[in-house]
Amino acid sequence: MKENKAHWEKIYQTKKPAEVSWTQAVPQTSLDFIHSFNLPKTAGIIDIGGGDSALADHLLAEGFTDVTVLDISASALEKAKTRLGSKSKFVTWIVSDVTDFKPTRQYDLWHDRATFHFLTAENQLAPYLAIAGKAIARYMVIGTFSENGPDKCSGLPVKQYSELQLQKQLKRDFTKMRCINEDHKTPFGTKQNFLFCSFKKKSDQ
């Protein structure tokens, strides 16, 4: 996946937050889903493809003490570290393509906003699902482009999902809890329709 890494390094090295579609000042929908689980502040949370998202900032501000951010782009994580300053030492930073990720522990919550829809081939989906199945102890939140969402993002093709299609992909290891659709307003005023769903690990019934 070297070409993928080069693509994302270039994006994060050359564009400011206001120039990329996924930027959110407050990732409110993600936070609402996370709050719905009533997790203890010691819960292990990993943000997949977190880049320089502000989710980690908000989780730290709420008192969560075990936050990990994984992204394919080292440049993205450096931006996040710079923004957080001294607080960045309270986050575990992992530079990896999620399909190559070799977790050494389990996480209470796996959060993925806008990574899953870039996995358009079976040889990307299969390892992601296998890794998630092993790494997640309790819950998963996925935000992906809906059937009414874009078919491309950042110059790359994406896969759009209906609630049923997403549930089907994850049914081996996870039970769907709830789903919502929402329009994300990009920094440049366009709208992207997202499907957000929460899932529970089947072994945690």
Question: What features would you describe in this structure?
Answer:
α1 packs parallel to α4 (74-84). The protein has one domain (26-201): Vaccinia Virus protein VP39 (Rossmann fold, 3-Layer(aba) Sandwich), CATH 3.40.50.150. The chain has 205 residues and is of the alpha/beta class. The N and C termini lie far apart (36 Å). The protein has helices spanning 2-14, 28-36, 55-61, 74-84, 122-135, 163-170, and strands at 44-48, 66-71, 91-95, 107-113, 136-145, 152-153, 156-157, 174-185, 191-201. The strands form 2 sheets. It has a 7-stranded mixed beta sheet with strand order 3-2-1-4-5-9-8, with helices on both faces. Strands 6-7 form a two-stranded antiparallel sheet. Helices cover 30% and strands 29% of the residues.
List keywords for this structure.
single chain, 205 residues, alpha/beta, Rossmann fold, 7-stranded mixed sheet, two-stranded antiparallel sheet
Detail the topology: elements first, then pairings.
Blueprint (H helix, E strand, L loop, with lengths): L1 H13 L13 H9 L7 E5 L6 H7 L4 E6 L2 H11 L6 E5 L11 E7 L8 H14 E10 L6 E2 L2 E2 L5 H8 L3 E12 L5 E11 L4
Parallel strand pairs: 1-2, 1-4, 2-3, 4-5
Antiparallel strand pairs: 5-9, 6-7, 8-9
